[in-house]
Write a structure and sequence with these properties.
Radius of gyration: 23 Å
Shape: globular
Structural class: mainly beta
Strand order of the largest sheet: 6-7-8-13-10-11-14
Oligomer: single chain
Number of helices: 2
Order of helices and strands: EEEEEHEEHEEEEEEE
Mean pLDDT: 84
Low-confidence stretches: 6-36
Number of strands: 14
């Protein structure tokens, strides 16, 4: 997706199925019945599009506290610059080891998101600023599901807005928010100093 920052300011087409070749043998007594050739394993593998992962991003840990007090740390792709937030999950078909992408702002914002060239349906959760000392996460502002927009002009894509100002937005493949602890009453915060090239080994 691509958030529209007030301040600073994905497209895969499935391969057509290949028709199996039909082979006809001509023997001494005339043509035999037509037979359909079976694709080999290597041919079947060639038809599978490789997964597209986020490219050019680092990772970071986000602490999510559920309404019942359960705390978990989740590794996510980190988008904390205007260019990274603009790229987001455009064209992505797999997340790899990170469970989500975290969009981070230094100051509260109200900009909307849109799904231009984003081929995978997503769910998004927006969070407000953490408490004054940064120990407790920001409260959940709102969530929504977002569908791909494969239009040629981004201006025609639907805009998705949070229910209030936010400093953190978390995107997952559609329907996966609860799997990382994001439900009503949850809070979340980026853990300072957790940025790395890859998720930590577990």
């Amino acid at each position: 997706t691509a958030p529209e920052d007030p301040a600073d300011d994905s497209l895969l087409v499935p391969d057509d199925e290949r028709d199996a070749d039909r082979l006809t043998d001509a023997g001494p007594s005339g043509p035999s019945d037509s037979a359909v050739s079976e694709p080999t394993v290597s041919e079947a593998q060639d038809d599978v599009e490789p997964a597209v992962l986020p490219d050019g991003f680092t990772t970071a840990m986000v602490e999510i506290t559920e309404a019942d007090g359960t705390v978990c740390e989740v590794c996510m792709w980190l988008a904390d610059s205007a260019s990274e937030r603009g790229q987001g999950l455009m064209g992505v078909t797999a997340l790899g080891t990170p469970a989500a992408m975290a969009f981070v702002w230094e100051e509260p914002t109200a900009g909307g998101f849109f799904m231009f060239q984003t081929v995978t349906p997503l769910s998004i959760a927006w969070f407000g600023a953490p408490d004054g000392d940064g120990v407790a996460g920001g409260e959940l502002v709102s969530t929504t599901d977002m569908e791909p927009c494969l239009a040629e002009n981004s201006a025609t894509c639907e805009r998705f807005f949070a229910g209030g100002d936010y400093v953190l937005a978390i995107e997952v493949f559609q329907g996966d928010l609860a799997s990382i602890g994001i439900t009503e009453g949850a809070t979340a915060r980026l853990l300072t100093g957790s940025e790395a090239s890859d998720c930590p080994l577990t």
